[in-house]
Amino acid sequence: MTDTSSSIWAGPLAGIRVLDFTRVLAGPAASLALADLGAEVWKVEPPGTGDETRTFPPIRDGESHYFLGNNRGKKSIVIDLKVEAGVVLARDLAARCDILIENYRPGVMDRLGLGYEALSAINPGLIYCAISGFGMTGPLRDRPSFDIVTQALSGVLSVNGEPGGLPTKLGIPLGDLVGGINGPIAILAALHERHATGKGRLIDISLLDGLFGMLGYIAQLSFFTGEEPQPQGSQHPSLVPYGAFPAADGSIIIACLTNSFWSRICQAIGRPDAATDPRFETIGQRRAHRAPVNDLIQAFTAPRTVAELVELFTEYQVPHAPVLGVGEALAQPQAVAREMVVEVEHPVLGKVPIVNRPFKFPGAEQEKPMPPPVLGQHTDEILGGILGIDAQRIAQLRADGVVA
Questions:
Q1: Which of the residues 36, 80, 176, 209 is marked catalytic?
Q2: Is pLDDT above 70 for 237?
Q3: C-alpha angle 258-264-269 in degrees, rounded to nearest 5
Q4: Sign of the C-alpha dihedral, residues 344, 346, 349, 354?
Q5: Considering only CA atoms, which of 117, 116, 112 is closest in space to residue 81?
Q6: How far apart (Å, rounded) are the C-alpha atoms in residues 335 and 330?
Q7: Which of 115, 260, 288, 377, by CA, is between 20 and 30 Å from 187?
Q8: Where do the H-state alpha helices sit in 302-342?
Q9: Distance CA 20, CA 32 (A)
Q10: Contact at 8 Å (CB) between 186 and 203?
Q11: Active site (annotated) includes residue 61
Q12: pLDDT of residue 192
């Protein structure tokens, strides 16, 4: 059991080793969650550019914003998996780790000799998580997948955007990030199971499946009505008023989930009579009269500033929020209080701000995340400290191009 009594704590997964063969976003998001929880993550990168996202602009002093955003807390080791000596090193590392994550297309790791069957034979306790666009089975298993592709095929894209316009992809790449949610959930469940059985497990995570699973009540709406749900912009298909409304200097979100909130909204905008208007008295009636409800709210919000509206809706306990930019959001008092931005010392960039881990464990102060690694930063440390390879042999491996 991890000791949480010391002043600084690695996290609940301290002592767990993760071999990370992921790149770009879906896989790195999964290994990032495990690193945030205290696991030691060895990120295996190919020689040359490493993870492709290291080349994604904008770039500062050779370091990409994209890579920095998804790889805090990890260690980078460069191994050439196209040569047999590199595969041998990878297999030796797999024998010494608890979890392996990869997000190549199905079959790639098997062809390298690094598939689940091969590695579980040398490490029966290995939890092997394969993340791909469509999973290991089905007619699309071998297709390449990107975030917007899974958004389109899942139906998510069809309900995003303004009514009557072209579909709009989500502003955050949820089609990929869902792998960073479902992957760790399955891994931690398998880790719990291993305590009882002593055996690892193969996990098959499909990004498309993940978005299907997030459709929730939207899918049920389709089942109930037999119709395709349509895009509503920031509005809700069933609840009114719900969404963004214009202000004199920006916009504000108002969310009315129940009739009690509707009554408060009516009082806040100086129209208590609207609460008992026969057209607006129930959720169903407001949905049927969406346009006049929204017109009523918009007429009140449009000439007032966001600050005025926030003060007023706070007073009347109306669910609301100003629409903030990303920089504004991360600088707001709530984000500051939760320490969601921390400054770390990067080996190339010096002091840089990064988004902090989202997990909090009251009563145990977790150490600050390690900065995202530069390419190959921990190669010698891992080969020497984990595999026990001496400096002369590491130098020879580097001269042969096996590691870098």
A1: 176
A2: yes
A3: 130
A4: negative
A5: 112
A6: 6
A7: 377
A8: 306-315, 326-331, 333-337
A9: 10
A10: yes
A11: no
A12: 98
CA gap 24, 52 in Å, rounded: 6
Please, what is the average pLDDT of the chain? 94
SS3 1: coil
Q: Is the dihedral of CA 103, 10, 369, 15 positive or negative?
A: negative
What is the rounded CA–CA span in Å between residue 103 and residue 44?
12
3-class secondary structure, 24:
coil
**What kind of architecture, by CATH, is found in domain 242-324?**
2-Layer Sandwich (3.30)
Q: Give the residue from 182, 106, 177, 108 showing the smallest Cα distance to 139.
A: 106
147-154 helix and 174-197 helix, angle to the nearest 10 degrees: 90
Query: What's the pLDDT tens digit per position in 196-235?
Result: 999 999 999 999 999 999 999 899 989 999 999 888 888 8
Work out the end-to-end distance of the chain between its first and last CA atoms, rounded to an integer number of angstroms: 36
Both tokens of 345, joined, read: 């010392």
Are 368 and 344 in contact, with CB atoms under 8 Å apart?
yes
Q: Binning pLDDT at 50, 70 and 90, where does residue 359 land?
A: very high
- CATH 3.30.1540.10 domain residues, the chain: 242-324
Beta bridge mates, 9: 366
- Please report, for residues 125, 380, 389, the alpha-carbon distance to residue 383 in angstroms, rounded to integers and kept in the order given: 22, 5, 6
Q: Which residues make up the CATH 3.40.50.10540 domain(s) of the chain?
A: 17-214+340-399
Q: Under CATH, domain 17-214+340-399 is a member of which superfamily?
A: Crotonobetainyl-coa:carnitine coa-transferase; domain 1 (3.40.50.10540)
- Residue the block writes with tokens 């666009």: 133
**pLDDT at residue 1 in the model:** 42
3-state secondary structure 143-207: CCCCHHHHHHHHCCHHHCCCCCCCCCCCCCCHHHHHHHHHHHHHHHHHHHHHHHHCCCEEEEEEH
CA-closest candidate to residue 294, choices 235, 353, 341, 343: 235
Dihedral sign, Cα of residue 101, residue 103, residue 109, residue 110: positive
Burial class (CB in 10 A: 0-12, 13-18, 19+), 130: buried
Strands annotated E in 261-336: 320-322
Question: Based on the number of CB atoms within 10 Å of its own CB, is 56 exposed (0-12), middle (13-18) or buried (19 or more)?
Answer: middle
At 347 the three-state DSSP class reads coil
